Amino acid sequence: MDAEHMGADLERVLISEEEIQRRLGEIAQDIWDHYAGEEFLLVGVLKGAVLVMADLMRAFPGSAPMDWMAVSSYGSGTKSSGVVRILKDLDTDITDRHVVIVEDIIDSGLTLSWIRANLESRHPKSVEICTLLRKPDAAKVAIDCRWVGFDIPNDFVVGYGLDYDERYRNLRVIGTLAPHVYS
Ligand code: XMP
Ligand code: MG
Hints:
hypoxanthine phosphoribosyltransferase activity; magnesium; nucleotide-binding; guanine phosphoribosyltransferase activity; binds xanthosine-5'-monophosphate; purine salvage; binds magnesium ion
């Protein structure tokens, strides 16, 4: 599918490329200032956070190491259950290190609460969360997320790392899909 057709599958653009870049620039500066010269490790959650990670880390005034985790959440359909299995663990030992979890989206927050608890059990110096998007349901679990790009409505969104059946991850914007895509 070419880019033009991919764009035509969107019903509405929620967040433009410029808005994403501007917000990630602000967050990058804020994270950088927060650690005030102390090293921190970025931990991305595959696969959705790939693009957030790429643009966030390039917006830092200096360099920060990164690592990745892949998890699968057992759930019925599109809702996650909070029961999580690690598909790919970190390559790095995080004992006594500052960790920033980098996520694309928090929906129920169950997956991320599990990841956070799992990382905290490894005795890091600290764990913070940075997510590009947050949905209203995330409020149901008291998940303390220090850096949030955008609060969005409770619609299914694609683009900028987020997929529908592995498609649309490479869109530069975040949007909702037109009904004809689902049918
Ligand atoms: P939680 O546990 O917070 O799960 O409910 C978050 C995960 O659910 C997926 N998710 C989405 N994926 N568009 C997507 O492409 C969406 O609107 C959406 N909402 C939730 C995603 O995998 C995320 O990591
Ligand atoms: Mg994800």
